[in-house]
Amino acid sequence: MDLLIKQSNIIRYRKKEIIFRQSARTSHIILILNGLVKIVKESRKEKEVILKLAKKGQFIGLLSVMGDQIYQYSATAIEDIEVCMIDINAFRNVLINNGRFGLQIINIISREGLYIFNRLLSQTHKQLPGRLADVLLYFSNEIYNSTRFTFPLTRKELAELAGTTKESFIRTLSEYKHDKIINLDGSRVEILSMDIIKTLSELG
């Protein structure tokens, strides 16, 4: 810990500010100290796919830093945030000399890879109601740990997260509200029937 602290800096980013851009060379391990970060994959046709959100206590960029040393996606602050930038060489030295810490990092990388793999399967095989249920479960279980939360993304970004168009996302969200599966007031959401949401996710 002493080594990492000496080789790190606290950096603040404002809302919508880019932390790192896809295809840039990696130089630091980044730990989020507070706030939310959007992880985005950019395609050749300038389209974006939101892979996930990252929150306080999570590393971003590990898949790239420990892979080919080129960022494979971009990271943008969703809100004002603070991150800890850790020198990559110091981080690697700790991995080499601390097996328990190294195992924890392997677990984190494995979970990230599995999450992206499951998201790909979801968007390939599930219908829109199932994908929307996955988005609601993601915010409820992984980001906010609550059945009440405020979407931190625009409707367009939420549609990208669900792998659909903005119009289709809004229509399906309205159907959920009409069927009293959720309460919806602007960006504020309350899940009224978690059982139905889970069933829709499972059935796809």
Question: What attributes does this structure have?
Answer:
Jelly Rolls, 8 helices, 4-stranded antiparallel beta sheet, alpha+beta, 204 residues, 11 strands
**CATH fold name of the largest domain:** Jelly Rolls
Mean pLDDT, nearest integer?
88
At the first level of CATH, what is the class of the largest domain? Mainly Beta
**How many alpha or pi helices?**
8
Please tell me how large the radius of gyration is: 18 Å
Report the portion of residues in β strands: 25-35%
Return the structural class.
Answer: alpha+beta
CATH architectural name of the largest domain: Sandwich
What does this molecule look like?
With 204 residues, this protein is of the alpha+beta class. It folds into two domains: 2-123, Sandwich (Jelly Rolls), CATH 2.60.120; 126-203, Arc Repressor Mutant, subunit A (Orthogonal Bundle), CATH 1.10.10. It is 46% helix and 26% strand. The chain is built from eight helices and eleven strands. It has helices at 2-6, 62-65, 88-97, 99-125, 128-143, 155-162, 166-178, 194-203; strands at 8-13, 18-20, 28-34, 37-42, 48-54, 59-60, 74-77, 81-87, 148-150, 182-185, 188-191. A four-stranded antiparallel sheet has the order 1-8-3-6. Strands 2-7-4-5 form a four-stranded antiparallel sheet. The protein has a three-stranded antiparallel sheet with strand order 9-11-10. A hairpin with a 5-residue loop joins β4 and β5 (48-54). α6 (155-162) crosses α7. It is elongated, with a radius of gyration of 18 Å. The termini are far apart. The mean pLDDT is 88.
